[in-house]
Amino acid sequence: MKYILVTGGVISGIGKGIIASSIGTILKSCGLRVTAIKIDPYINIDAGTFSPYEHGEVFVLNDGGEVDLDLGNYERFLDINLYKDNNITTGKIYQHVINKERHGDYLGKTVQVVPHITDAVQEWVMNQAKVPVDDDRQEPQICLGGTIGDIEGMPFVEAFRQFQFKAKRENFCNIHVSLVPQPNATGEQKTKPTQNSVRALRGLGLSPDLIVCRSAKPIEMAVKEKISMFCHVEPEQVIFIHDVSSTYRVPILLEEQGIIKYFKQRLNLPIDDQPSDLLMKWKKMACRYERLLKVCSIALVGKYTKLSDCYASVFKALEHSALAINYKLDLMYIDSTELERSTEAENSVKYHQAWHKLCKADGILVPGGFGIRGTEGKLQAISWARSKNKPFLGVCLGMQLAVVEFARNCLNWKDANSTEFDPDTKNPVVIDMPEHNPGDMGGTMRLGKRRTVFKTENSVLRKLYGDETFVEERHRHRYEVNPELTHCFEEKGLKFVGHDTEGNRMEIIELENHPYFVGVQFHPEFSSRPMKPSPPYLGLLLAATGTLSAYLQRGCKLSP
């Protein structure tokens, strides 16, 4: 097993996840089996109870793990399926060690950060690195891991300082991602932050084998030579990644700077110097992305619109689908509260700007979420999409609110609501699930990959999924459509075309006589891949560009 540790310096959010994913993509293109582990220093057991404004979206894995969004990048780039133990947190490690101590595993010894916590980290990494993540179920050959150098992450840094000797030099490589800022006042690219970052890392006992320098513009050769000299590495060990038009371009930039040859020598890998067809596909995809001329605009109506990372997987799923049909995506974020009547009274400019965005969009998407704030604005957007025949996709809460909107405006149940927002409603069209435990918030939802069975052949989504009788997608929800009321909706044209294996949980809705009005209880964005777009999102883009009917007539084949 070969281990590649990716550390970050200068600032957080520098792109460690994308760099690690891109390196994994290159190694996978050379025929190697790659897995990935993300290390987060927070004391939370997992990311499940975070606000999206804390660390971005919560990514859900097949096994129900609620993890950091970087694992989403790993899955999309490498086309693998990870597990919750691929996300290590301080909380998980300490809980693991404390449980062992309570069990008496340490035989009365004083339990300390060194060696007990650091040993637990190393043991966890070695065990998880062996778990197959590809469809062929073979053990991986390369394990990519990411951590940072903050004070709270010190036990992890110390664990890897020890681990480099345990794994041996030919099996362990450290890549340090740093920033090369360019102040507007001078226009000069500054290397001092990188020098200080590498010096600090060396002081902790880790010496970088590769220094990946992030910058706004391409870095000059003189800067590369300066970093090489002051950071005690060869010039070929300094890699530049400037801001690019799409993340698809990052693996290509790395490959152009000789990273395959370096890894082959440094880790003694049994590979050719040239990448395979997989990287050629990435090159073609990146070039195609940059040449797109036609634009499709989608309005994303949500409550976490101030930070794009809150909907990272949704954005990627839309981007994958737009690319598949040769359109450039114009994603317009609309804060759902700005569509509400209360905003018109408080700030009429914001209100009219939000509605202007919504009205000019080619399609409307209402993603998942929790809590009552902004729900009335989402209901307004859904009502507009339904009545104006605008293509619409509702995901999780978006589907539940589509049912609420239909009940209020088509069934005339004016007080219809979800018990999440109004526990005493006379028409509870959305109710909490049997598994829901109101006393405990972490891990009490319906999580992970579950089967959805189509109950009719006359379904747009079934055709988009390749006429399969069932699909398996990832879930993350506490509430669901009330199955006792579904017959009332079906009589009026809102069909529940997919349900769980027992037939009790409503999973997919479709509205008759509408270009594309679809809701799904699951989160299809988590399984979208750059070369395998998610069918519900693809359907939205096709409908928004007016090409859905032609696509279905061709037997769900994309035009060249």
Automatic annotation (TrEMBL):
Domain of life: Eukaryota
GO annotation, cellular component aspect: cytoophidium; cytoplasm
Keywords: ATP-binding, Glutamine amidotransferase, Ligase, Nucleotide-binding, Pyrimidine biosynthesis
Catalytic activity: UTP + L-glutamine + ATP + H2O = CTP + L-glutamate + ADP + phosphate + 2 H(+)
Span of domain CTP synthase N-terminal: 2-269
Residue ranges annotated for the Glutamine amidotransferase domain, each copy included: 307-536
The protein's Enzyme Commission number: 6.3.4.2
Molecular function as annotated in GO: ATP binding; CTP synthase activity; identical protein binding
Family designation: Belongs to the CTP synthase family.
The organism of origin for this protein: Onychorhynchus coronatus (Royal flycatcher)
Keyword Cytoplasm part of the UniProt annotation: no
UniProt-listed NCBIfam families: PRK05380.1 (NF003792), PyrG (TIGR00337)
Top EC group: ligase
PROSITE patterns for the chain: GATASE_TYPE_1
InterPro entries per the UniProt record, alphabetical: Class_I_gatase-like, CTP_synthase, CTP_synthase_N, GATASE, GATase1_CTP_Synthase, P-loop_NTPase
Protein name, UniProt field: CTP synthase
